[in-house]
Structure prediction request, 373 residues.
Amino acid sequence: MGARGMPLRTFVVLAVLASLALLPGLGWAQSAKPAINCMECHGSVPKYPILGARLGYDVSVHKTGGNSRYSNGGGCQKCHTNEGFIDYIATGKVDDKAFIAYPSQPGCFTCHAPHERGDMSLRTVAPVKLSTGVIVDLGKGNLCANCHQARTPVAATVVATPANKISAPWGAHHGPEVDIFEGTNAFQFPGKTYGTGAHTKVVIDACVQCHLTQPEARYGFSPSVGGHSFNVAGDVHEAPKVNPAGCLSCHKDMGQAPGTEYFDIAAPADYDLDGKVEPFQAEVQGLLDKFVNANGSGYLQKLPIPMYDAAGNWLPAKVDTVRPINEMAVLYNYKIVLEDKSRGVHNPTYVVQVLYDSLQVLNPKFDVSKRPR
Prediction:
């Protein structure tokens, strides 16, 4: 037993910690800032619900994406690894010739720095410059914007290209949400005008407000919807479920279209020209299906050198015939809207305009009378 009957192991640990606190340079002295209260995260009833947030994170793509190993280099480590992102935020640059010896998936400490700051504030909320040079300020959503943007500006990407030089990852890449949200970086055809929705002006914290808000009335439908899953829609009890909680401050009666993963907000028009006005996201999906679909009848599947096969999979070309810039522009626009994944919710006006103009390029007789102005 140690002092005053304290178990010897506990006494030794406390003695070591006390002696470390006296050592200079370790940041543990009484004068060090910030003062860290471990129990705010690790107590029985913590101030920050770490375990509850972790349930959502464990089923999120941040955890399950599995890209940290093979995306560990060439600049990809900035967003695909925890270590690369932290280094980028600290230095403002990424070494595309370096790699991380033991890369890990983006996790809690990628976005938060509690052991350095003493709280769960975001690692950064500074405005972000997109690849186009556009500077965005999305409040707390700025953290997300560092990665959820197109990797290159459209002008540098959409050029006439030999068909066999175009790979499946070509384009804006897999996370262009901020570009769509801001109404930028899709290919805008000459002579056309492009607008944008109201979300950039009224959704103060952008990504964070809609994707992390918990479902109303309960902590969550399941860990896979809301919170740190970052999902607005998912399966709950083997049925699709949407979480409109982050949208209700503006869309007060918004719910779910029965049997779908769509919000029940009707589109202003029958955009996909199937004879009925459906929920907006269904109309945008109908437009995307005109490019590529499971029946093999999409415009990009019927080109002289098809871009996708009959099942809708990317089809590598075996010839070096140069694809003209208009074909490249259409492919880019299709992919940037598809990979935004919101089916137009992030910026309804811009998305429909971009898709209509792209369809008209492939089919000059395509009816664009319902194109938003």
Q: What stands out?
A: The beta strands are 128-129, 135-136, 161-162, 233-236, 239-242, 322-323. The two ends are 80 Å apart (CA to CA).
